[in-house]
Design goal:
- The strands form 3 sheets. The protein has a 6-stranded mixed β-sheet, with helices on both faces.
- By secondary structure, it is α/β, with parallel strands linked by helices.
- 35% of the residues lie in helices and 30% in strands.
- The structure holds adenosine-5'-triphosphate.
- Adenosine-5'-triphosphate binds next to strand 1, strand 2 and helix 1.
- Belongs to the ABC transporter superfamily.
- It holds the Pfam family ABC_tran.
- It comes from Ectorhizobium quercum.
C-alpha cells in the first residue's frame, strides 16, 4: 500500500519561559493511503501538534514530512493552496461562522479560492447531500444540533474535493449515539470517495470503532503503531490488547479445567474453532466471559474459555494448541 504521509524523525519543540518543551520527539510514522488512521493518546501526548504539522499550521523543528513522497515543506504558493484543498481539517468545536447559513459555511472554502458562484452552489449542494443535511441549507449554526454542526464541518471539508480528512477530536463534543452516527458517516464517505482519514482522539472507543490502523502516542513519542488486524494477532502487542481488552475472568476454573484467553481477530473464519475442538477432541468447554466487538470495520472477539482437561493432559492440550495454530487464534495476555 502506498503512503499518504511519511514522517521521518520529526521533532517539534516549543520554548516556554526559557524552557524547551518537546511536543514531538523523533516521530517516524507512515500513514497508508486509504487508511482510517487513528492516533490515540492522553492529553499532552502530542496528537494536536502532529495534526498541526500536517495541516501546515506548524513547521517541524527537525525531520521531514512527506505527502505522497514529496517533502511537505517544499510546497510554495499555489502548491500550498492546492495541498490545503486536498488535505482538509475537521475540528472538535466545528469552527463554523455563526452569522452564515449552512450553505454559506460549506461554500466558504470555494469563495476564498475565487470559485464562481454557480460552481460554489453546485458543489455546496452536492456536499450537503453527501452528509445528509438536505433541508438545512438556510439554517444558522445556532439552529443545529452538535451532530448537524459536525456534518456541516465535514461538508465544508469535502467541498473542494478533499482527498484526505484530518479530524481533530471530531466527536469529543458529541454524545455517544451521535458519535457513532458521525463515525459511520466518515466511514461511508471514506469508501465512497476513496479518502484517507487521519483522526486524533483520546477516546479508545472511537479508534476501536472506526480505525483500521492505530498509533499510540505518549509524551511526544510513538509508543506503538500498526494495522488493527496485525496488532490483534500479536499476543505481545500492548496496543492490540488495548483495542480488545480482556473480559472479566469470573471465578477461577474448576480443578483440572484449564482456562484459555482466546483472541479471534477474524471471527468469521475462526468461530468454527469451538465445533472443531468439540469434534476432534471430545472435550467439554465452557465460555466464562467475552464477546464479539466491531474493530477496524470487521468483527473480532475475545473469549475466556475453560476446557475440561481432567485426566487428559498433555495430549488434549497439545491437540488444542494445534487447532489454535491452524485457525491463527492468538492466546491473549491480560494487561
Ligand atoms: N504553541 C505551543 N506552545 C507551547 N507549548 C505547546 C504548544 N503547543 C503544544 N504545546 C505543548 O506540547 C505538548 C503536546 O501538546 P499537544 O496539544 O500536541 O498534545 P495533545 O496530545 O493534542 O493533547 P490534548 O489532547 O490535550 O490536546 C503539551 O505539553 C503542550 O502543552
Amino acid at each position: 500500500m502506498s503512503s499518504e504521509f511519511r514522517l521521518e524523525h520529526v521533532s517539534k519543540t516549543f520554548s516556554r519561559s526559557g524552557e524547551v518543551l518537546h511536543a514531538l520527539d523523533d516521530v517516524s510514522l507512515t500513514i497508508p493511503s486509504g487508511s482510517f488512521f487513528g492516533i490515540v493518546g492522553t492529553s499532552g501526548a502530542g496528537k494536536s501538534t502532529l495534526l498541526r504539522l500536517l495541516n501546515l499550521l506548524e513547521r517541524p523543528t527537525s525531520g521531514t514530512i512527506r505527502f505522497r513522497d514529496r517533502p511537505l515543506h517544499d510546497f510554495k504558493g499555489p502548491e500550498v493552496r492546492h495541498y490545503l484543498s486536498k488535505v482538509a481539517t475537521i475540528f472538535q468545536h466545528f469552527n463554523l461562522f455563526h452569522g452564515k447559513t449552512v450553505l454559506e459555511n460549506i461554500a466558504l472554502p470555494l469563495a476564498v479560492r475565487g470559485v464562481s458562484k454557480q460552481v460554489r452552489l453546485k458543489k455546496a449542494h452536492e456536499a450537503i447531500e453527501r452528509v445528509g443535511l438536505q433541508g438545512k441549507e438556510n439554517a444558522y449554526p445556532s439552529q443545529l444540533s452538535g451532530g448537524q454542526k459536525q456534518r456541516v464541518g465535514i461538508a465544508r471539508a469535502l467541498v473542494a474535493d478533499a482527498e484526505v480528512l484530518l479530524c481533530d477530536e471530531p466527536t469529543s463534543a458529541l454524545d455517544s449515539e451521535t458519535t457513532t452516527v458521525i463515525l459511520d458517516l466518515l466511514l461511508k464517505l471514506k469508501d465512497q470517495l476513496d479518502l484517507t482519514i487521519v483522526l486524533i482522539t483520546h477516546a479508545w472507543p472511537v479508534v476501536r470503532y472506526a480505525a483500521d490502523s492505530v498509533t499510540l502516542m505518549q509524551g511526544g513519542r510513538v509508543v506503538e503503531t500498526g494495522g488493527v488486524r496485525d496488532l490483534l494477532h500479536d499476543a505481545d502487542s500492548y496496543l492490540g490488547r488495548q483495542l480488545l481488552p480482556a473480559p472479566d475472568f469470573g471465578s477461577s476454573p474448576e480443578n483440572g479445567w484449564v482456562r484459555y484467553d482466546l483472541i479471534l481477530a477474524d471471527v468469521r473464519a475462526q468461530s468454527t474453532f469451538f465445533s472443531e475442538a468439540a469434534r476432534r477432541l471430545d472435550v467439554t468447554a465452557s465460555v466464562v466471559s467475552g464477546g464479539v466487538e466491531r474493530l477496524g470495520g470487521a468483527d473480532a472477539a475475545r473469549f475466556k474459555v475453560d476446557f475440561d482437561l481432567r485426566g487428559r493432559e498433555p495430549a488434549v492440550r497439545e491437540a488444542l494448541s494445534t487447532i489454535l495454530r491452524e485457525k491463527s487464534i492468538v492466546l491473549g495476555k491480560a494487561l
